[in-house]
Design a protein that fits this description.
about 90 residues; alpha+beta; 2 domains; 3-stranded antiparallel sheet; disordered N terminus
Length: about 90
């Protein structure tokens, strides 16, 4: 289990797949983002706004969109499992 000490507890999340604890990465496509800007048409101004609202968080370790806040009740069980896996390794 990786723990980024600089994060507040309310910012930490846990991956339901690999039990990574920390800050998620934000996934988006640079290539898809650049196409509207290159074409220089009106959608080039609308697309970045749409893209901002459609970003999602992924686990830095397993790259799955399975991060949940450690404040939710289901995460408490995952934290216990992650700690037990870490101590047995």
């Amino acid at each position: 289990m990786k723990d980024n000490g600089s994060l507040k507890d309310t910012e930490k999340k846990i991956c339901t797949m690999c039990y990574y604890v920390g800050s998620p990465e934000i996934k988006f496509s640079f290539l898809v983002d650049s196409v509207p800007w290159v074409s220089l048409i009106i959608p080039a101004f609308a697309y970045p706004i749409w893209n901002i609202t459609n970003k999602y968080e992924i686990c830095p370790r397993c790259k799955q969109p399975s991060m949940v806040s450690i404040d939710v009740p289901s995460a408490q069980g995952l934290l216990k499992k992650a700690i037990s896996l870490e101590t047995t390794s």
